[in-house]
Amino acid sequence: MQWETVIGLEIHAQLATRSKIFSGSATTFGAEPNTQASLIDLGMPGTLPVLNEEAVRMAVKFGLAIEAEIGHTNVFARKNYFYPDLPKGYQTSQMDKPIVGKGFLDITLEDGTVKRIGITRAHLEEDAGKSLHEDFHGMSGIDLNRAGTPLLEIVSEPDIRSAKEAVAYVKAIHALVRYLGICDGNMAEGSLRCDCNVSVRPKGQEAFGTRAEIKNVNSFRFIERAINHEVQRQIELIEDGGKVVQETRLYDPNKDETRSMRSKEEANDYRYFPCPDLLPVVIEPGFLDEVRAGLPELPGEKRARFEREHGLSAYDANVLSASRELADYFEQVQQVCGDAKLAANWVMGELSSLLNKDNLEIDRSPVSAAQLGGMILRIKDNTISGKIAKMVFEALAAGEGASADAVIEAKGLKQVTDSGAIEAVLDEVLAANAAQVEQYRASDEAKRAKMFGFFVGQAMKASKGKANPGQVNELLKKKLEG
Amino acid sequence: MHRLTLAQIARGLAAKDFSAVELSEALLARIGQFDPQLNSFITVTADQARAQAQAADARRAAGENGALLGAPIAHKDLFCTQGVRTSCASKILDNFVSPYDATVVEKLAAAGCVSLGKLNMDEFAMGSANESSHYGPVRNPWNTECVPGGSSGGSAAAVAARLIPAATGSDTGGSIRQPAALTNLTGIKPTYGRVSRWGMIAYASSLDQGGPLARTAEDCALLLGAMAGFDPKDSTCVDQPVDDYLAALNRPLNGLRIGLPREYFGAGLDPRLSDAVMACVEVLKKLGATVREIGLPNMQHAIPAYYVIAPAEASSNLSRFDGVRFGYRCESPVNLEDLYKRSRGEGFGAEVKRRIMVGTYALSAGYYDAYYLKAQKIRRLIRSDFIGAFQEVDVILGPTTPNPAWKLGEKSSDPIAAYLEDIYTITANLAGIPGLSMPAGFVDGLPVGVQLLAPYFQEGRLLNVAHQYQQATDWHQRAPEGF
Question: Rounded to 10 degrees, what is the CA torsion of B114, B116, B118, B119?
């Protein structure tokens, strides 16, 4: 039987506010346990929450970016359950009236087609703390630093049909929240985590199959593997005559498998009700206008502009707009050198391989946009050839000079454009290869074309790569034909 | 000295008739002498009181002359007090020493009040007899066989017995007004949002409101003026200037329109209380008020609505008492579930458990619409009843309670009978309007209270009417024998 996979994702994005959603505590990651937990975060008797307006602003930014309706009246609700890292015994979240309503995000698939993924809603809530089970001699430790960190939970429609699409969607959300500056996107630190609702159905069937939810997957690679594994598990289960049960599962990256956490029957009744300590948040049209006016250029807009303004191909524009940092880097290079095509080639070529090799993000690139742009300028004005440029780039990457000019100067890589000097080199090369010259002159046009490259190569070698290739071509042709 | 009201104390301190230290010492001695009969204090903070009194005298010597500078009070034990046990009269918080002060505590301390300690109450403010305290019941100074009312029963008993001139209380369904009525005091529940709830341990967040209990309306005005005001730490606190309550006291009552809700005078009201209320109305008429009957038709649904909403909120508010971070933890838990079950099972008393279970049930999937949502609808109806009534009248007047104080243990086996004692007070909490109870006579030697209700933020009007009434009557000046 042919099976179709149906996936819906719930992404938790930690909002990059300086303080928590309901208290003034800092949200910095990695501090000593419980040093960023105020009376409120500890759930001390008598304490009350006060909403951080910045979290609302960030959620609204996201809503506007996915063209969603923004709730006029926002109600926070309590989700009641007991857990040691949930200090109040309830999580303050949103239920009936989320801040962000229906919207969508377009994703580009591997084959270049664009697919629209519906977003059901996105709501604000507070994160819980962490239970630490190591080093306490049979007891558990509680770290409440993370308790109260603002989260935006982004719920997609079940529009996703494969693990690869799921990854493309999460990457698009990741890029978007970073573009908006509302989440640092650091998945290793848990700033962006993903619950995957996965089901399968026979191809052509309308009704959804029973879904399982895989909790808290925190890397692109694990999302793909967890979903693929779960799809396989469900298909095998059904084909063996079994039934998928609705349950929560956990992905174990070490064993590459998902296992059951709890079934629907064991699920909590969260007893949601409006939080009486927080008044409904009314979002006025003026606030929306203000946030809208402050929105940065979004990935889709940037992609279109790169094609339009810089004449980039759709593929190049897509790659270069994938992250705001990469796009900014590219545009800086372009501004310095004034050549979008060369800038794009260098950023996507040499620079990308350099970063990949050392596993670096663009903001930690050893070659700055100004350095790269300056180097491309020297290619354009014939100071160096493309081949020498690679040497210059490597030297810049190794920190061997403050600028391309400094490297060129120090290493004497300046291209020779003095035709007298080039002619002298050519004369030497031709003299040293008299036999080949004879052969060349005796050959027909086709053969000559092939041999020409040999002389160019010899000439470049003799000039240690510094001779201007254009001039070498031109003068060489004259000498051989003449 | 113990017979002085706050206003008299202010004049005495200003005239240097006595010092704050002398006054506090005298009252601490009285607490030591009389409180064993009443059990109104959970914690007496004598050392802290002496230090605060000395500081107040020093501030006065340095030229300050605030009306509350050196005034002795005590706090209901649900207001968090830094460095002092804050128990909510519950075993679960018996070992809880608050790391911070409630806004009310902070504001009164800043005004110069001297806190003599923490007052007994019903556990987590759940009750109307002050019989559910982990520290034992409080007795009514007017008859120590009787309850003082609740939940601010310790506050009421201590002030009525002249152990302190005034106290803080909190009112979720009548917990200031009902004990004030049963002990011959004046107590005011302000408009919801008038007094900060920061540091006031929550029972039902959408209904809870702090306020003062004292022997006169004037003293309530003094204290409320210092307690009220916007607090950025409480999102439900209203950012609106506080009226000058003292200045409002002396307005004449000419033309005051009083509404008597017919629903308040039906079956269930002790006819002797009804007579006392009508006598009070006659006095107010002589002072220039006009009286008309009004209707509050949805009042009949108030108790069921309250006993859904308040327990629902409480069931969630009390989840934080789990034995993990503070408060009571059971002996040697074997696992997490055992820790939760036994810490809470052993830490909470019967009434608190009853309300947590009722609230949990009301919020459960499948019951939410039938209970919680319906109760919220009733709440809106009750609010619109009041808004409608206040189109026609300035204040609403009626009995505070259907009966005078009852004997200890008389209603403790019948929670419904106890719940019905709140029938006249609960609507003000559901609507969020301010309400005041004032002394209006006696039945069998037990005090009778009259309740006044006013539109939002008209606390000044309530204090004004009560003050004018107290200028014309002396019920409020009567003291219980033996104290």
Answer: -110
Chain A residue at shortest CA distance from B317: A88
Are B316 and A273 a contacting pair at CB < 8 A? yes
Which positions ≥6 away from A174 have C-beta within 8 Å?
A185, A187, A192
Contact criterion met (CB < 8 Å) for A48 and B313: no
Q: Does the interface predicted TM-score (ipTM) exceed 0.90?
A: yes
Active site residue B364: no
Using the Cα atoms of residue A57, residue A62, residue A67 and residue A73 in order, give the sign of their dihedral.
negative
**pLDDT tens per residue across span A159-187:** 999 999 999 999 999 999 999 999 999 99
CA quadruple B169, B172, B177, B182: dihedral positive or negative? negative
Residue-wise pLDDT tens digits, A78-91:
999 999 999 999 99
Burial of B118 (0-12, 13-18, 19+ CB in 10 A): buried
Annotated active-site residue B175? The verdict is: yes
Q: How far apart (Å, rounded) are the C-alpha atoms in residues B229 and B402? A: 33
The architecture that CATH gives domain B6-255+452-477 is Alpha-Beta Complex (3.90)
Query: Residue B429 — φ and ψ, nearest 5°?
Result: -70, -40
Query: Do the beta carbons of residue A165 and residue A196 sit within 8 Å?
Result: no
Nearest to B96 by CA among B114, B83, B113: B83
Q: Residue B133's pLDDT is what?
A: 98
Buried b (16+ CB within 10 A) or exposed e, B3-36: ebbbbbbbebbeeeebbbbbbbbebbebbeebbe
Rg (CA), chain A: 30
SS3 call for A203: coil
In this predicted structure, the answer to whether residue A288 has a pLDDT above a threshold of 90 is yes
Tokens 């994703």 belong to residue: A107
Tell me whether residue B374 is one of the annotated catalytic residues: no
Q: By C-alpha distance, which of B120, B96, B130, B39 is closest to B351?
A: B130
Interface contact flag, B322 A42, Cβ < 8 Å: no
A21 in Cβ contact with A55 (< 8 Å):
yes
CATH for the A419-481 domain, from 1.10.10.410, 2.40.50.140, 3.30.1360.70, 3.90.226.10:
1.10.10.410
Domain ranges of chain B: 6-255+452-477
DSSP strand pairing (A192-202 vs A212-217): antiparallel
